[in-house]
Amino acid sequence: MSEPVVRIDNVSKVFHQAGLFNRGPGFTAVSNVSLAVTKNSTLGIVGESGSGKSTLLRMVLRLISPSAGRIFINGADIWALRGKSLKAMRREVQPIFQNPASSFNPRHTIRAILLAPLEVHGIGTAAERRERIHTLLRRVGLDPAIETRLPHQLSGGQKQRIAIARAVILGPSLVLADEPTSALDVSVQAQVLKLFSDIKYDFGLTTIFVSHNLAVIREVSDEVAVMRQGEVVEQGTVDQIFDDPQHPYTRELLAAVPVPEIMRNKEREPQS
Ligand code: ADP
Ligand code: MG
Exposed, middle or buried by CB within 10 Å (0-12, 13-18, 19+), for 123? Predict the structure, then answer.
């Protein structure tokens, strides 16, 4: 098998309370996690609030450093990258967060928000940039005229469509999504998930998708890892995890969700 796009190798994260002279043992948010994501597949990471999902994703995004272990993207140790190769990696790896309002500058128009990555990486002429933005806005189901608006003038669903557009505008190979639909109403959530899946396919993306919502994880994932208190307690294909869970905790999680909830989301074709 070829080298996975992402390889998480025995990664841990221990948080220490700030300002203490005598540092205690600290709090282990992620403990000895090893995972791999193969090209063009989606790894879903599911677990209750506080299980360490976001912390793990933030380490893959290189926003916080692991206390132990290594993370490889396209074969390169992301903490060993410097200069040009670090910039190239940043272009390849794009995030989508739960609350786009907090990752958009509230005073920047949608156009400025989408233009920024193209400018940073020196891509295209002014006309080409405008064209790429308009094409992408249409692709995510928005009228290009929306580009003159500010983030607060958009609905939650529209903002997540912009977040998806921004994530793919540089043609990344890897998109890391942290609860991207959790703040949306259920009907809008289904539309945004459908868009995410279509875009993933069109752009040939490899993705990690973090959610506490089992129905969402079932819909988007090829492989699933179940996290509990910082550890991955079980991993497998989506069918293994949902149809034949082995770990008692996975069974407990599944039992806590009414079956029709999971099935309905799986079977219903979301409107878009
Ligand atoms: P999840 O995304 O699964 O809800 P998180 O990764 O956000 O979980 O958090 C896992 C645990 O780590 C939680 O107990 C949280 O309080 C703790 N934690 C997260 N970030 C920090 C931090 N910067 N400092 C201290 N503790 C943190
Ligand atoms: Mg989280």
Answer: middle
Range 256-262 average pLDDT: 66
Ligand 1 atom with least separation from CA of 230: 10
Q: How far are the Cα atoms of 76, 79, 80, 89, 208 from residue 72, in angstroms, in the given order?
A: 5, 9, 10, 11, 14
Please check the confidence at residue 239 and state whether its pLDDT lies above 90.
yes
pTM of the model: 0.92
Across residues 122-129, what is the average pLDDT? Answer: 96
pLDDT tens column, 44-62: 999 999 999 999 999 999 9
Give the closest residue (by CA) to ligand 1 atom 20: 55
Q: For residue 110, give every residue at least 6 positions away whose Cβ sits within 8 Å of its Cβ, in sequence order, or none.
A: 137, 146, 147, 148, 149, 150, 151, 154, 162
The answer to whether the CB of 29 is under 6 A from ligand 1 is yes
Q: How far is the CA of 232 from the centre of ligand 2 (A)?
A: 15
30 CA from centroid of ligand 1 (Å): 9
